[in-house]
Write a structure and sequence with these properties.
By secondary structure, the protein is of the alpha+beta class. It has 12 helices and 6 strands. Helix content is 46%, strand content 14%. Strand 5 and strand 6 (199-201) form a beta hairpin.
Length: 257
């Protein structure tokens, strides 16, 4: 299967990388602190802002904003420098990371806020903490701890600027619902195209074309999935087919099983 094209352009990116064979890439808090130090040095060089992060034992999440088309250079510096540190410290050889990092370009602001919640709830899902903001290696934890200094590269974080606003902390405490999780997964699959003035999600084929040869329920359901991945919303597809949004959601869940 062909690789998903790398989106290197300036803007918001959600980054995930894991240890090879899911092995630990941080064996102690000192390792995580070193990783954050490397991130901040790289941010200074490549003019990148960190908006949120979560460092788990065998993987990390970053929500960053690049100001130029240099995502690949930025990520190469982080991953290679940390691998050098880790291999030297623990006297090991070989690849530290499982492969190339995963990245998703963020277009919609509501998707950004879902990502804040998704990232901050990672330690709870992994049973490493019970409440949002308890696990020390997330940005929210440092914001809530008056004795802990926010890393320099997150000084302009959208989360940092807004976490005192009314309703933000309550929003962050809510885990993503199943529907929101589905929406997040769909956003990650949608294609991004560049127009004259902006980047936006593409819709390569009309709904008429998607559903022109759907004579069975199975064919219709496959076409629903293709339309979702092409950038159409569940409600939009439901209106076109004259079915409920719940049915479209059910089809999506069924394909994910």
């Amino acid at each position: 299967m062909a690789r998903r094209p790398r989106l290197n352009m300036a803007g918001f990116h959600h980054i995930v990388n894991r240890g090879a064979a899911k092995h630990k890439v941080y064996r102690c808090n000192e390792d995580k602190e070193k990783f954050l130090e490397i991130i901040c040095k790289s941010c200074s060089i490549y003019k990148v802002n960190v908006h949120d992060y979560c460092l788990m034992d065998n993987h990390y999440h970053l929500l960053i904003e690049t100001t130029t088309d240099n995502l690949s250079l930025f990520m190469r510096q982080i991953n290679s420098n940390y691998a050098i540190y880790f291999n030297k410290k623990y006297k090991r050889t070989g690849h530290l990371w499982q492969g190339r990092y995963k990245s998703w370009y963020i277009v919609k602001e509501e998707y950004l806020y879902q990502l804040f919640r998704y990232i901050e709830h990672n330690p709870i899902k992994a049973r490493m903490s019970q409440n949002v903001g308890e696990y020390p290696f997330t940005l929210l934890a440092t914001l809530l701890n008056s004795n802990q200094e926010v890393i320099k590269c997150a000084e302009h974080s959208k989360l940092k600027k807004e976490y005192h606003y009314e309703g933000i902390q309550e929003l962050l405490e809510k885990p993503l619902s199943k529907q929101e999780q589905q929406e997040l997964e769909l956003e990650q699959k949608k294609k991004i195209v560049q127009t004259e003035h902006e980047f936006k999600q593409s819709k390569e084929i009309s709904l008429e074309k998607h559903f022109e040869n759907t004579n069975t329920i199975s064919q219709r359901n496959s076409a629903i999935m293709e339309a979702l991945e092409d950038g159409y919303g569940q409600a939009e597809i439901a209106r076109y087919l004259n079915v409920s949004s719940a049915l479209v959601s059910y089809v999506f869940r069924s394909f994910k099983l």
